[in-house]
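Try this one yourself first.
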């Protein structure tokens, strides 16, 4: 049962300090969830990939999944599906709670004072941090779990990533088609 309290504490921190959306939250999620050993690095990268393909924000999707698997990984006696469902519900609600509270209570203040130098200054300071956190997430995902551990795997993975980046930057092809094409390419190449 202690796992639920630890998950609540971790997801409160993620919810309160996860500025910039899901990608910016990835480093924080990894630190809070992988470091204690609730899931492995491979599971984390798989969660990120699955969260990309499912509807909804990555932070909420990952919270739901991690809440489901963390009780089993922390205590074998909690391996039944009901423990996982309880963990999913707890983590999902807790990661949303800080955003709800901030929008509910700070939103009124921000709207009222959106022209003030203090509010403009805060947002001017937060924008570069969000860009840095998203860049950190990109670097965090450039690991052997995603790119392979041998030179041939690494070369193939970099080629797929570069092709996807190029197509995304220089064409108007929808990202869903890029994801499907990358999956097909991976199936053919690997």
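Now uncover the answer:
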């Amino acid at each position: 049962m202690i796992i639920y309290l630890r998950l609540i504490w971790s997801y409160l921190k993620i919810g309160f300090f996860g500025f910039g959306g899901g990608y910016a939250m990835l480093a924080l999620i990894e630190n809070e969830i992988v470091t204690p050993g609730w899931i492995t690095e491979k599971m984390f990268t798989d969660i990120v990939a699955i969260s990309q393909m499912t509807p909804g924000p990555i932070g909420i999707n990952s919270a739901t999944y991690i809440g489901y698997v963390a009780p089993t990984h922390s205590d074998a006696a909690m391996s039944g599906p009901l423990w996982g469902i309880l963990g999913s519900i707890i983590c999902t609600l807790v990661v949303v709670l800080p955003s709800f509270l901030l929008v509910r209570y700070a939103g009124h203040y921000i709207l009222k004072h959106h022209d003030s130098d203090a509010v403009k200054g805060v947002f001017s300071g937060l924008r570069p941090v969000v860009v840095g956190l998203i860049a950190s997430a990109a670097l965090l995902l450039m690991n052997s779990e995603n790119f392979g551990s041998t030179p041939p795997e690494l070369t193939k993975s970099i080629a797929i990533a570069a092709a996807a980046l190029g197509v995304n930057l220089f064409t108007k092809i929808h990202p869903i088609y890029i994801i499907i094409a990358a999956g097909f390419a991976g199936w053919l190449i690997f």
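Discussion: The first helix runs from residue 2 to 17. The two ends are 42 Å apart (CA to CA).
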